Amino acid sequence: MQLEFHELICFLDYEVTVFDRSQYDENGYDPAADDVQAASADHNKIFRASYGNEIHYQRLALESREAWISEDEDRRLSSGGTNYQQLFVNSGMLRIQPSDHLATLEKETLDSMQRDGLRDTQFVESNSTDCERAEKLGWKEKLLNFQIPDYPDKSYEAVLDSLAGFVRCSNACAYYREKADAKGIKFNLGSEHGAVESLLEEASSIEPNKKKITGLKTKDGVIHKADTVVVAAGSFSTQILHDLSYHLESSAGSLATFKINEGDTELWEKYSPERFPVMTWKSTPRDNSGKDTGSIYVLPRTPEGLVKIGYRGIKWTNFHPAPQDVPFAQDGQWSTPLPLEKCSVLPEPALHAVSQFVSIFMPEFENTPFYSTKLCWYTDSLDNSFVIDYVPTYAENSVFVCTGGSGHGAKFLPILGQHAADILENGDESSSFMRPFWRWRPDAPRKNGLEEGPGGPRDIGHI
Ligand SMILES: Cc1cc2nc3c(=O)[nH]c(=O)nc-3n(C[C@H](O)[C@H](O)[C@H](O)COP(=O)(O)OP(=O)(O)OC[C@H]3O[C@@H](n4cnc5c(N)ncnc54)[C@H](O)[C@@H]3O)c2cc1C
C-alpha cells in the first residue's frame, strides 16, 4: 500500500491515512528486512518506454520519465550536488533478440517510437546508420555484441534503447514516503497497527441492495472509520478485498544476485551503470500461442555491488484452497503469495534459465554462487493493465482499488498516483488518458495466464 497512495495523498486535499504492515519508517524499504514483502521494495527495477503497439503506455512511461528527471534535479539542487543518488538512472537497455532478427514486438516498438518522433533514440545492432548515430551520441559502447552459441558466425540481433534504464525502487519509495510525511499524511505502519485485518461493511441506505465499506480493522483490533477506503496492496490485494479475485492473480518472478567486491576493479567497472546497460533476452522465441516462457534480464550493479538477474519467463503461481466467500476460484483454489520465509528458494527451471543466461552473457560469473535468491510477487491482471477504479459491487463509492499491473508499475511511481487521483475524483469525467484501460472490467476474459488455474506447469506446488 505504498506506490499509488503516496502520490494520491499528495495530490488530493483530503485527510488521508496510509496503513501498511511493514515498518517502512524504520526499515527504509530494505528488501532484505524481515518484515518486508513488497514488489516495490527492491534495489532496482527496469524503466522502459518500449511497449510494442501499446502507445498509451509508451506515453505514460515518457510522462513518468520526465517526472523522474525533474525530481532527481530537485534532489540534486537541494543536496547542493553532494551526497545525492539519482532515483532514475539512464543506463540504456539492450533488448537482445532470441535470434539474428527482430521479433514482432520489437518492430512494433520501433514503429511506435517512430510515430512519436523518437526513432532516433533506438539503435538496432545490424543497422549501420543506427550504429553510426550511437557512436556519435556516446552509446556505442553499450551496443554489446554476443555470438549465438553453436553458430559462431552469427550474432544476436539487438536494440539498444537509450530512453531506458532503471529506477532505484526502495530509495524512491523511502523518498516519496518522507515527502508525504512532511505534507502531514498520517502513516500507520507495522505488523499490529498497520496491518489491515478486514474491511468493515454495512448495508447502504442509499443503494438498498448493496453494502458499503465504512472503514477497516487493523490487527491490533482498532477500528478506523473512512469515507473511502483505497485498496493498493499489490499481490495481497485479493486477500483484503475478495471482489478482486476474478481480476487479479499473484504469481512470482525469480530473482538472483551476484555480488562484486569493489576491489575487483575490472568487474566493478564492467558492470557499472556507466558501462553496462540493462539487458533483456528471451531464451526461446514466443510460442505459437504468443506465450513467452524465456524472458530474462539483468541490471547493472548497485552501489553495493549487487548484480540482479530476473527470470520472468515462467511466473510461478501458488494455488491453495480459497476462502468460502471468494467470488471467483478455480477448483476451489486461488493463488496468493507464499509466506516470506518460503521465498528464498528458486524452482529448478528458473535456476536453469538463469545459468544458461549467465553462461552466454555473463561468463565471468559462470561458476560463482549466487549472493541471494528470492521469489518476488507480481500482481497479474487479466490483460497486464492496472485496475484503478471504484468497485461497483459496493455502494456509495466507498471502496476504490489501485492495483494490478502485472510487473510494470515501478517505473510509473512519480505519476501513477496523479492519474489515480484524477480517476478517484472525477470517474468517467477524468482527464487521464489511461481511464479506459484501468476501469473495473468484469467482462474481460480471463487471459494472460490467469486462465490456467491450479495443477499446471506454473503451479509451484506441482513442479
Ligand atoms: C519480480 C518482479 C519484477 C518487476 N520488475 C519491474 C520492472 O522491471 N519495472 C517496473 O516498472 N515494474 C516492475 N515490477 C512491478 C512493480 O514492482 C510493481 O508494479 C509495483 O512495485 C507494485 O507496487 P504496489 O504498491 O502496488 O505493491 P507492492 O509493492 O507489492 O506493495 C504492497 C504493499 O501492501 C502491504 N500489505 C500487504 N498486505 C497488507 C495488509 N493486510 N495490511 C497492510 N498492508 C499490507 C505490503 O506490506 C506492501 O507494502 C516487477 C514486479 C516483480 C514482482
UniProtKB/TrEMBL annotation:
<feature type="domain" description="FAD dependent oxidoreductase">
    <location>
        <begin position="35"/>
        <end position="422"/>
    </location>
</feature>
<dbReference type="InterPro" id="IPR006076">
    <property type="entry name" value="FAD-dep_OxRdtase"/>
</dbReference>
<dbReference type="InterPro" id="IPR036188">
    <property type="entry name" value="FAD/NAD-bd_sf"/>
</dbReference>
<keyword id="KW-0274">FAD</keyword>
<protein>
    <recommendedName>
        <fullName>FAD dependent oxidoreductase domain-containing protein</fullName>
    </recommendedName>
</protein>
<keyword id="KW-0560">Oxidoreductase</keyword>
<dbReference type="Pfam" id="PF01266">
    <property type="entry name" value="DAO"/>
</dbReference>
<keyword id="KW-0285">Flavoprotein</keyword>
<dbReference type="InterPro" id="IPR045170">
    <property type="entry name" value="MTOX"/>
</dbReference>
<dbReference type="GO" id="GO:0050660">
    <property type="term" value="F:flavin adenine dinucleotide binding"/>
</dbReference>
<comment type="similarity">
    <text>Belongs to the MSOX/MTOX family.</text>
</comment>
<dbReference type="GO" id="GO:0008115">
    <property type="term" value="F:sarcosine oxidase activity"/>
</dbReference>
